[in-house]
Design goal:
The protein has 227 residues and is mostly helical. The protein is 63% helix and 0% strand. The chain has a domain at 83-225: Lysozyme, CATH 1.10.530. The chain is elongated and about 105 Å long.
């Protein structure tokens, strides 16, 4: 009788072990998967913390747009002579391409930057009134926002990386200031001339456009870097 009771106890222990494995062994896999997913979302939030997740139309920029993404790392880091206009121009071009702007869009952006600031001088202030500043000659509230962004990041407002980061933030949030048709044209066009004009009218919004100058610089950039 004792031998039988011992066998029954062993059998019950085995059944209990199987039950616990079925109930909790598989569940631990799902719990681990959930943790991994939560971590991924948290990491994505950290990586894009400098960019509002919605644009001025209230749409999720991470889902609707390729251009304007966080820059990808260079596979083969290049050296740039940032003391020269062409060195800065090439640096900006490569930055924009890594951010998934098309070559047409990158040319249009650079054409506008050089239309505002032909030498791409990072600390340049607008001639005469000293209002505009930097690559895009940010003015008034936009200039204040640039300087506040630099202070927040602990960087100089004349840093090329800081200005490009701020440009990306503006591009993905309120930089277009409701100019939806120009933004749509810029997003979809395959014409350097059209991209340059759309960016000028919708994003830069200068008092004196000098569009022919901007388009000249844009065409030159496209010819130099798009091959």
């Amino acid at each position: 009788m004792k031998a039988l009771m011992k066998k029954i106890k062993v059998f019950l222990v085995i059944l209990l072990a199987i039950y616990l494995f079925v109930m909790y062994g598989n569940n631990s896999h799902y719990q681990q998967t959930d943790i991994k997913i939560a971590y991924s979302k948290e990491t994505k939030s950290e990586l894009s913390s400098d960019i509002n997740s919605t644009n001025e139309e209230g749409q999720d920029i991470n889902n609707i747009s390729e251009e304007g993404s966080e820059p990808e790392a260079d596979v083969q880091p290049k050296s740039y002579d940032l003391s020269t206009t062409l060195g800065r121009e090439e640096y900006i071009w490569d930055f924009l391409i890594r951010c998934k702007f098309s070559k047409v869009q990158a040319a249009g952006i650079i054409g506008n930057m050089r239309g505002e600031n032909s030498g791409l001088v990072l600390s340049k202030e607008e001639l005469g009134n000293n209002i505009g500043y930097g690559l895009i000659q940010w003015s008034y509230g936009r200039r204040d926002n640039l300087f506040a962004f630099a202070k927040e990041k602990g960087m100089s407002p004349s840093s090329i990386d800081l200005q490009l980061m701020f440009f990306l933030k503006e591009y993905n949030t309120n930089g277009w200031a409701g100019h939806k048709s120009e933004r749509l044209t810029f997003k979809n066009t395959e014409s350097v001339s059209e991209a340059t004009k759309a960016f000028c009218d919708g994003f830069e919004r200068p008092g004196v456009p000098r569009l022919e100058v901007r388009q000249k610089y844009a065409s030159e950039a496209y010819e130099k870097y798009s091959k």
